[in-house]
Q: What sequence folds into this?
């Protein structure tokens, strides 16, 4: 699998990553190499194999009572935010 | 004073017997960190004042007769665990300004055991790396040879314990990140069963693989710390409710009758001859002590690395989508719109390897490629899991090398991601199957430590600790120190 510059630009866009002109050829090379490397999986016979998503068999998602267990710590959490105002997170204007 | 030559268990006994105080011990290690920490680049943050406060509290607790085996013993946390009020960087520029608002469960539990926090250790960015060269805070050096890597991603924890500037440290293991640095620095690196230790407050990389564990001087230290860390946590939905057995009692398990399987696929091409010989000799020693040994083939295991490099990047691309410059972490300057905010924040905040893995994951999950890559990898993961299950029907534990070579030179593999990924060729299988595994030191090759890996079935921690401890009673590899730090 060989990726083109256009492919990598598209992947970077989907991943919301800005990639510089200088980085682009490096990623074209290394991502192509990684995809070529994982290509060996296609040789494995997996016709009737059930895909494994979780390492522990029979593990079920535990459920708990739907009740409030957390206290309000908005100020503490927002202390890490780059920009807040009146308890709200600030982002660039989204709707014109 | 040679307090640093004591294991964590020995320090705990010394403090309990009032031979020395926790404050004295903390000062001793802080002093060693001050002298050797910067050269090794093992710590991102040293919490000197906090350590002394913790130590004073531990001494008071011991004086009241309320201490446990770890009360007053210092430790370092990998900087992937959230520590309330302390920078929690995950080795990334993205979180280089992130002061965690709460403690991870692991941090909370070891704190409750009375352990003393020395600081937060350097690591590969977001735990993605096998050499500790991807950290925003720069590479960590191996105390055995500072021109070489300590392994990764828990390389700061490994270097700190190997240099005895911390008696014990936490780590996380997604594809070998505890065991491989353990092997490369001469430590006991223990990765428990998936779900055995809570991941609440442990920054996520690949959620079907990540597990917390410990980098220790001995199996006994690993047992003590693991006993304090493990157990169900309602705040982590993947944490299992299975009761935690008595890990220290498990240390006394005899080797006689232990059925050992040697993974034949782990002794093929790519294994350094000296490493292979040391591991073979160690397995022979187990046989001499009354264990039985047979060679087994796990034919799908060679597909571990390609399987991992689909599954782990896929999960990472999803987990790391939370870093958007809005609620916490780095934000780019003057974003012109929301898309620009996301792209530049993430482009600037993540390093090259993290971006590579996010893009790999984005690609294998994208429309038209999902079945060919991600679903296929999950099926091969099933085959690998079946190989392990068949093997454990015949033997109690599996053994082989932890890493293919001793520590390599800083910079030797940074230009070739595939070459770097192959460092984890022997460790990834246990992560894919969720198995517990430990690396124990079993020799020196050209003055550099090598590790024997012991893998067990799910929740067989006791068996691994028993085997590792028996090995350490018979040998002294785990008590060898890097000459410059003795």
A:
């Amino acid at each position: 699998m060989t990726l083109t510059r256009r492919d990598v630009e598209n992947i970077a866009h989907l991943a919301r990553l800005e990639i510089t002109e200088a980085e682009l050829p490096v990623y074209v090379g290394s991502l192509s190499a990684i995809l070529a490397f994982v290509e060996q999986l296609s040789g494995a016979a997996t016709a009737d194999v059930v895909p494994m998503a979780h390492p522990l068999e029979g593990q079920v998602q535990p459920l708990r009572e739907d009740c409030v267990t957390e206290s309000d710590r908005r100020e503490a959490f927002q202390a890490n935010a780059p920009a807040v105002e009146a308890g709200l997170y600030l982002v660039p204007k989204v709707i014109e | 004073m040679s307090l640093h030559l004591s294991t964590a268990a020995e320090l705990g006994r010394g403090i309990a017997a009032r031979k020395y105080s926790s404050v004295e011990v903390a000062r001793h290690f802080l002093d060693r960190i001050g002298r050797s920490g910067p050269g090794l680049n093992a710590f991102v943050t040293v919490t000197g004042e906090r350590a002394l406060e913790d130590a004073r509290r531990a001494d008071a607790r011991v004086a009241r007769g309320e201490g446990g085996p770890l009360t007053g013993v210092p430790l370092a946390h990998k900087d992937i665990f959230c520590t309330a009020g302390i920078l929690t960087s995950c080795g990334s520029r993205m979180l280089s300004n992130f002061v965690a608002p709460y403690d991870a469960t692991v941090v909370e539990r070891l704190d409750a055991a009375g352990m003393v926090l020395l600081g937060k250790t350097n690591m590969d960015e977001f735990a993605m790396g096998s050499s500790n060269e991807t950290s925003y805070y720069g590479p960590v050096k191996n105390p055995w040879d500072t021109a070489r890597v300590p392994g990764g991603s828990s390389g700061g924890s490994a270097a700190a314990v190997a240099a005895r500037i911390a008696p014990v440290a936490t780590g996380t293991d997604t594809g070998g990140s505890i065991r491989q640095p353990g092997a490369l620095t001469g430590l006991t690196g223990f990765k428990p069963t998936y779900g055995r230790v809570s991941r609440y407050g442990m920054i996520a990389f690949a959620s079907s693989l990540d597990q917390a564990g410990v980098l220790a001087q001995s199996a006994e230290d690993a047992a003590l710390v693991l006993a304090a860390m493990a157990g169900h946590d309602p705040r982590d939905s993947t944490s299992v409710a299975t009761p935690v057995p008595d890990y220290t009692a498990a240390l006394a398990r005899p080797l006689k009758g232990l059925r050992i399987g040697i993974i034949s696929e782990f002794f093929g091409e790519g294994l350094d001859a000296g490493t292979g010989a040391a591991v073979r000799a160690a397995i022979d020693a187990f046989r001499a002590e009354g264990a039985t040994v047979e060679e087994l083939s796990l034919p799908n295991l060679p597909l571990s690395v390609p399987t991992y490099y689909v599954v782990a990047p896929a999960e990472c691309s999803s987990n790391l989508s939370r870093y958007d410059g809005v609620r916490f972490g780095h934000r780019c300057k003057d974003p012109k719109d929301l898309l620009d905010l996301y792209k530049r924040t993430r482009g600037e905040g993540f390093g090259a390897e993290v971006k590579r893995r996010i893009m790999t994951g984005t690609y294998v999950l994208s429309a038209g490629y999902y079945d060919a890559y991600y679903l296929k990898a999950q099926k091969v993961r099933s085959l690998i899991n079946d190989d392990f299950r068949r093997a454990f029907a015949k033997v109690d534990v599996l053994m082989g090398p932890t890493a293919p070579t001793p520590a390599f030179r800083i910079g030797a593999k940074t230009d070739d991601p595939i070459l770097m990924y192959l460092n984890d060729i022997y460790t990834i299988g246990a992560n894919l199957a969720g198995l517990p595994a430990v690396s124990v030191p079993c020799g020196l090759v050209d003055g550099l430590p090598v590790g024997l890996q012991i893998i067990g079935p799910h929740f067989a921690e006791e068996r691994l600790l028993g085997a590792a401890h028996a090995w350490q009673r018979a040998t002294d590899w785990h008590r060898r120190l890097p000459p410059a730090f003795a």
Observations:
- Chain B has a mean pLDDT of 97.
- Chain B touches chain A through 76 residues (CB under 8 Å).
